[in-house]
């Protein structure tokens, strides 16, 4: 049957990601309307984005700790995560301000069963050319995350209802059509004690630092880009995140298969950091809109490659523990900059505030370049072609 081949399966998993990930910024996009109707404070509006990040991190750790990926079929997890996130989003408008943050936390928790599981399914179909395949998956995540920006002209209840409906549609698609590939393997056991060994190992530590630099920038940029563009009077959020981001994710995957993960991650982060710094000078000029497109592509081009790089330098017996810990910590880092950036913008204005985001990718690029020397002959794949 044609749907059991790797190409159609990649397309199906990508479709599920697009539909389910529309939940991520569904509430964040309509915060101005929520503040007006519900009387939310500025901090309460910021909290609606932060709690999704923290919910995702918690969901990732809990899933790994109870070995959920091996207790349930992956297509069931995809469907359950999509449906649970949709239910939380459907409940959001009628629940009121008091339940807003807990429901967004639950949404992030549910999405921890969507993106990581989808990544594992894709890897099981693509023992080779994983960079390209994962680039497609990250492109789907990017497009889904950008969809609320495309819908933001409607009433805020309509935006949330559409996002929830899209996520709910993902559930039957995942349950009936998505299947793991021939290279599906049981998850390595969760072993918290390995975290100490992981922290002591220079190669693993550097990959994590590179990922943290990437996460310092990514979600804060995505969360606050509409506010930045509104202040600048130029650019478009959906085009920058959705269109340019998909192109960047696909290109990053192809280049990683050809030139190696460390080269691509370092180049993408340096480009992204440069865009953040140059945006200060480009503010108010015709150069800002095209610069934002380059930034939108570069900020996500490396995203899929950090997990692959860590899996190559970690002890294979505990790769699951390493990947979960890195992912969870990265989303906590992202919550910090989501909190800091608007506060800084209140003091300096959006033009200068976004320069804060460049700190992460600059340090992350240095870390990923250093991975080559740290890995050495132990893991040659991480320094060249995977």
UniProtKB/TrEMBL annotation:
The record gives the membrane topology as: Multi-pass membrane protein
Ordered alphabetically, the record's keywords are:
Membrane, Transmembrane, Transmembrane helix
- In this record, what's one Pfam family? MFS_1
InterPro entries assigned: MFS, MFS_dom, MFS_trans_sf
Q: What are the coiled-coil residue ranges?
A: none
> Is Transmembrane one of the keywords UniProt gives this record?
yes
State where the protein is found: Cell membrane
Q: Please give the name of this protein.
A: MFS transporter
Q: What organism does the record attribute this protein to?
A: Amycolatopsis tucumanensis
């Amino acid at each position: 049957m044609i749907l059991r081949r790797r190409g159609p399966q990649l397309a199906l998993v990508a479709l599920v990601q697009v539909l389910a990930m529309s939940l991520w910024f569904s509430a964040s996009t309509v915060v101005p309307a929520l503040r007006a109707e519900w009387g939310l404070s500025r901090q309460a509006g910021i909290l609606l984005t932060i709690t999704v990040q923290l919910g995702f991190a918690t969901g990732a750790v809990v899933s790994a700790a109870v070995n959920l990926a091996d207790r349930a079929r992956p297509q069931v997890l995809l469907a359950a995560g999509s449906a649970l996130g949709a239910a939380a989003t459907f409940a959001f408008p009628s629940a009121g301000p008091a339940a807003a943050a807990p429901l967004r936390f639950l949404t992030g928790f549910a999405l921890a069963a969507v993106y990581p599981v989808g990544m594992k399914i894709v890897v099981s179909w693509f023992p080779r050319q994983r960079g390209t395949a994962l680039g497609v998956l990250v492109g789907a995540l990017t497009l889904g995350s950008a969809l609320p920006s495309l819908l933001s002209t409607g009433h805020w209840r309509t935006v949330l209802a559409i996002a929830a409906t899209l996520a709910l549609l993902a559930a039957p698609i995942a349950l009936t059509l998505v299947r793991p590939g021939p290279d599906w393997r049981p998850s390595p056991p969760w072993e918290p004690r390995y975290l100490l060994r992981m922290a002591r190992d220079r190669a693993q530590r550097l990959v994590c630092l590179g990922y943290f630099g990437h996460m310092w920038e990514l979600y804060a940029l995505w969360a606050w880009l509409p506010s930045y563009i509104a202040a600048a009077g130029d650019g478009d959020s959906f085009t920058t995140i959705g269109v340019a981001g998909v192109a960047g994710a696909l290109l990053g995957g192809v280049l990683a298969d050809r030139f190696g993960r460390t080269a691509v991650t370092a180049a993408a982060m340096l480009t992204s950091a440069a865009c953040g710094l140059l945006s200060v000078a480009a503010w108010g000029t015709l150069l800002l809109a095209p610069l934002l497109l380059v930034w939108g592509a570069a900020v996500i081009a490396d995203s899929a490659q950090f997990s692959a790089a860590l899996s190559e330098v970690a002890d294979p017996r505990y790769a699951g523990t390493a990947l979960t810990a890195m992912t969870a910590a990265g989303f906590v880092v992202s919550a910090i900059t989501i909190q800091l950036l608007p506060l800084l913008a209140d003091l300096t204005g959006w033009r200068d505030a976004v320069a804060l985001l460049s700190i992460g990718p600059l340090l992350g690029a240095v870390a990923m370049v250093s991975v080559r020397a740290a890995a050495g002959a132990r893991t040659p794949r991480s320094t060249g072609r995977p």
